[in-house]
Amino acid sequence: MFPTREDVHGIKRLEVLRQAAASFNFKGYHATSMNEIAASLGVTKAALYHYFPNKNSLLAACFEHAMDAAFASLEGARKEGRNGRERLVLTMSFYVAQLINELNCCVVLMEEQALEPEDHAKLVRQRDRFERALRAFVKEGIDDGSVVPCDPKLAIFVILGAMNWVPKWFKPSGTWKPDQLNAALAQMFERIISSSPAAAMARDVGELPSRGEPPASLISLAQRRRTPRPGPAKKIKAGGKR
Amino acid sequence: MFPTREDVHGIKRLEVLRQAAASFNFKGYHATSMNEIAASLGVTKAALYHYFPNKNSLLAACFEHAMDAAFASLEGARKEGRNGRERLVLTMSFYVAQLINELNCCVVLMEEQALEPEDHAKLVRQRDRFERALRAFVKEGIDDGSVVPCDPKLAIFVILGAMNWVPKWFKPSGTWKPDQLNAALAQMFERIISSSPAAAMARDVGELPSRGEPPASLISLAQRRRTPRPGPAKKIKAGGKR
Amino acid sequence: MFPTREDVHGIKRLEVLRQAAASFNFKGYHATSMNEIAASLGVTKAALYHYFPNKNSLLAACFEHAMDAAFASLEGARKEGRNGRERLVLTMSFYVAQLINELNCCVVLMEEQALEPEDHAKLVRQRDRFERALRAFVKEGIDDGSVVPCDPKLAIFVILGAMNWVPKWFKPSGTWKPDQLNAALAQMFERIISSSPAAAMARDVGELPSRGEPPASLISLAQRRRTPRPGPAKKIKAGGKR
Amino acid sequence: MFPTREDVHGIKRLEVLRQAAASFNFKGYHATSMNEIAASLGVTKAALYHYFPNKNSLLAACFEHAMDAAFASLEGARKEGRNGRERLVLTMSFYVAQLINELNCCVVLMEEQALEPEDHAKLVRQRDRFERALRAFVKEGIDDGSVVPCDPKLAIFVILGAMNWVPKWFKPSGTWKPDQLNAALAQMFERIISSSPAAAMARDVGELPSRGEPPASLISLAQRRRTPRPGPAKKIKAGGKR
DNA sequence: AATGAATGAGGGTTCATTCAT
DNA sequence: TATGAATGAACCCTCATTCAT
Prior knowledge:
The structure is a homotetramer. Chain A has one domain: Orthogonal Bundle (Tetracycline Repressor, domain 2). Chain A is built from ten helices and no strands. Chain A has helices at 12-27, 34-41, 45-48, 55-80, 84-103, 117-144, 152-169, 178-193, 218-224, 232-238. Chain A is elongated and about 55 Å long. The N and C termini of chain A lie far apart (41 Å). Chains A and B meet through helix 7 and helix 8 of A and helix 7 and helix 8 of B. Chain B binds a DNA duplex through helix 3.
């Protein structure tokens, strides 16, 4: 999906990027040294420079990936969502799914200032475009009645904040599977903006899979480009409280 | 309210801390040099060492402040909140109010790994205690019917994520006043967990003050310790469950 | 003889250590900057950190070397010395020979407080063991009649003091050759403790080589582990007690 | 005896100097900070600058004191010693006595390079003069038969080395009293150079005082300027071995 | 006489980056 | 492709020193 350049240097390039992303997520960009990234790959610092011209380009690549995923998610959600709310929630779902899958974990979005001015400007442009699109979904939802009247900016900030916080506590190897996380997050986001009465939420996401039918795997959905899906909100609401 | 040690070195110590917190929030701990902090105060790097023994202790002090504020907020909310949901939302309100007031901006809670092992262990202990308390509010709320059944862990993570994202986009000098931010956030959080049908939200927090009565200033509440508050919790409760 | 770790990084590591030792001896540990050591090797400060993790480890390595030499000398002297006095004097001879040969100059033993606590404790343990062994030689010598009755502690302190003072005035490139220094020191130490009437001493060590047979090279002795030596000890013993 | 300038600033100046000397002796000049010296006196760093213009002048004053003591000792020994050997040993005795008494401990003579060029040149001049005088005593002794033929340079180096090592192990508060130390050292030095058969040495300096008549207090001698004394060598030799 | 605050220079250390091999 | 060695810039921190009070 994002064959930007990984064919130039084989699969190794992506591996490097994933390790870098993981470390950036875990410790932050500045606290991560090239040495560490290299060591976690079993090679020497200098070897990294065969795949990326410098450390900053690693960060830039992370953001590129993230923004690519963002826009792809946007597009996917536009097709499959049937109203503002569904599109917004789907976007986030697709987005999370891709980042977790491809970059080992959500990419840290909190250190953009570290980018070179050029890359930074580009990121800001893209991010703003992305956020505008998200806000547009909110407005759209308010108009079509699927989203509660609210301040779109704030709503998006809250949702993005929750998203970006994920790498701080979510470990793909933990008890929650990425699919579960994704489904649970979707429920949460839905609650934040839905105009409908609050749906009951799963008491423990760790048990979600055993709750009747398993939650639609948004990850595979995002990747396999399945056919239109109704979105988690509806399904779950159906089995929700009251 | 938190005279931890600022009297030792006069007011200057707090000034240093505020500047440091602002920079840490804006650029991150590792990206902030002592030189920058000093320069923003109009002094030399070395001068900072009169007030703090090293850079890391600045970060530690930020966290101390934050945790002090957290527990004070907890206590305040326990007294004034009338059910789980109110207590949770009040806690966050008080918390945000204090941090913005005292540290110039919310303290960045995402770089705890940078702390010295000792300080880090202490912070983790306190933070866990804080989060446990928040989750207890959620459970309490589920039991008393004020909170929708949900996974408490996830709910808290979402709320904390939204909170910690604030410093990335909120500037106290911007169009939104701290009080407005606080009120709007409270509404959002309320929506995330409330068991009652979502109350209509302000379309644009920037215009909030002009929307009828101004939102109850949670900040001043947190500081003046007023009597039972008429804030958003009440409103929503009016239409809430039970 | 002491391949502690110099094979890890090739010969360069030992070169670094020798330069460091020379500077430490000449100016003292604290007065020697990494910059100076590096400059004297024609490299940059940062290059040193390829071979040693920090400045202190350079000092620690010096001491390690010195203590290794000390214990090797002890062992050699135990085998070749025929009484307490001979063993003591031989120990010092072997010791000086090795340090001058390997570290360019005697290592300065006067700044142990600069070591990290761990290294320092280890050094103190070893040094105490070494000094105890030396004192045991003195006692042994008093018992076997080769050493004049005296306070062993003081005798050893005086000898060690004289030894540690050497780097302050001895330059391997000067008129005295290391062998000459060694032989002359041995004579001196012998006089301090010998029970026999004092043997005549060379008037000027600078002329020693021309005085009949050259003094037995204790250095080569220490290294080649020759059979019973004809060095000064023997001569003096000739006129010694018994 | 050395009223160089201590009357300018009262007794405090000497106190400062003593503390500085003690710290310099214990940790070395560069490892000792003005803060430490001040703290050990219960004042602030800045206060020291009322008595000495800078840190280096403290070191210079130490050396001045030491050299004053050296020359005074020289003069005293010239008057009271009856041959080369006695004069040499007396010099060292007087010297040690004064330094211990006045500066709390022998002054460390190993960091002259730290001095300002001017002071350093002066010190080197004086020190050379002192050492030349000591060597002259040796030669004198060789000529008058009181000193064994030997290399004067080396002999003096050995003796000075032993002397300068003292501050590393001698604590005035320990079991050995300064007088005992002095007497024992004198014996040792005597052995190094004496032409006469080796005198027996006290087995334990700690017991010296109980060995018949107490050893002539060289310290008080040096201070009270008593009448001619026979020197420890003679006395002790009288009761020496064989 | 003494202090607290501030400074500037310098030292140790880290680290991204380069380059010959 | 990968590495070990080396670099230079930047950073944290210390410390002697100054100065207004």
